[in-house]
Predict the 3D structure of the following.
Amino acid sequence: DSGVTQTPKHLITATGQRVTLRCSPRSGDLSVYWYQQSLDQGLQFLIQYYNGEERAKGNILERFSAQQFPDLHSELNLSSLELGDSALYFCASSATLAGESYEQYFGPGTRLTVT
Amino acid sequence: GNSVTQMEGPVTLSEEAFLTINCTYTATGYPSLFWYVQYPGEGLQLLLKATKADDKGSNKGFEATYRKETTSFHLEKGSVQVSDSAVYFCALSDLMDSSYKLIFGSGTRLLVRP
């Protein structure tokens, strides 16, 4: 058990809909990363938050957004869903401090199926 | 930009065989290197890491050495078990655009037969 929790575990929804994925980092970790795992694109970085502030953006579509709350949990919002958004979405947390890199611990993922 | 290349899978071995999964990287700076493992239906687990040249990461019988001269971080295990069947991902992390995001290889599926 990594200490990172994600809900829900599975999500099935229709095209055009909007969903919210939730992540709680390990206790004390200030950084949250979101990744997408799909068959055609592999594992790709989407976005990072650090202590409530957006730190970096990767290959994240404009239809997707995220935020990190004062209690450090994070949500990834996916809107106007398309079939191609079907994937496994992971969140990871780390104790990143300025100038240091720490390993990232991953949650179990949310499997999104868009029908 | 930074990238990671892994050998194509699947790799099929008999129990107790020697395992090598090749991983090479391209990086502009001095990245940290990681191996993650994904068991069927589960998330990613950190297997081992190395943060500087010549460091050897090890865990659960797996080893990998950070080779700067060959830009490689090959994963090895002397004697695999059926329970090692999983997908293995090599990854690097380096400070880019204010983030230590992970850049992953495409993953290598390992299947160990009894």
Observations:
- Chain B has a mean pLDDT of 93.
- The longest strand of chain B covers residues 86-93.
- The interface with chain A takes residues 32, 34, 36, 42-46, 49, 51, 89, 93-95, 97-107 of chain B (CB under 8 Å).
